Amino acid sequence: MNDGEQQKRKAPEPSGVDLARQALAAAREQARARGHAAGGKRGRQQPGLRSGARADGRDPMPLMAALDRLRTEHGWEMPIAVAGVMERWPEIVGPEIAAHCEPERYEDRELLVRCGSSAWAAQLKLLAPQLVARLNAELGQGTVRLIKVQGPGGRPKRYGPLRAPGSGGPGDTWG
């Protein structure tokens, strides 16, 4: 007999349990190489993910404090302030202007205001610098850079047997 045949006879083939142990050892070694502890929850905990006696970001807090934190983290201060101004529009610009002009949207530090008539649109264009100063006093300097004024949107088109296609009929002269 050769030496190779003798070694085959001496070393029995591994059983299923032995193969499972070898696979588990190899998996643990790979986990250690990746930096993970093998063996479930007994491994190292990530810093900041444990509970303790000291305060951390997961502790309960009052609702308003949580909303303020959320607003600050996501950079929502300006949109929330502008939404507040849109609600208080009559207080800021006065009841007469508010009765004829209303803010529609705020984008890129520009406030779009729609007026009910072309006369009020022209008047608001003249008052725009004063309104920008008043809005910035309410919101903080530089919040509103420009007020864009739009005239009336016009009447909805009515189609019917007595209408000519494409005709808008009498309307405001804005445009």
Account of the protein in words:
The protein is mainly alpha-helical and 175 residues long. The protein is 47% helix and 10% strand. It is built from 7 helices and 3 strands; from the N terminus they run H-H-H-H-H-H-E-E-H-E. The chain has a 3-stranded mixed beta sheet with strand order 1-2-3. The longest helix is centred in the last third of the chain and has 22 residues. The protein is elongated, with a radius of gyration of 36 Å. The chain starts with a helix and ends in a 25-residue tail after the last strand. The mean pLDDT is 76.
Head-to-tail CA distance between termini: 108 Å
Number of DSSP helical runs: 7
In terms of per-residue confidence, which ranges show pLDDT below 50 for 5 or more consecutive residues? none
Briefly note the structural class of the backbone. Answer: mainly alpha
Question: What is the residue-mean pLDDT, rounded to a whole number?
Answer: 76
As a whole number of angstroms, the C-alpha radius of gyration is 36 Å
Global geometry? elongated
Strand arrangement within the widest β-sheet reads 1-2-3
Series of secondary-structure elements, N-terminal to C-terminal: HHHHHHEEHE
Q: How is the main sheet built? A: 3 strands, mixed
Please bin the fraction of helical residues.
40-55%
- Range of strand content: 5-15%
How many strands appear in the DSSP assignment? 3
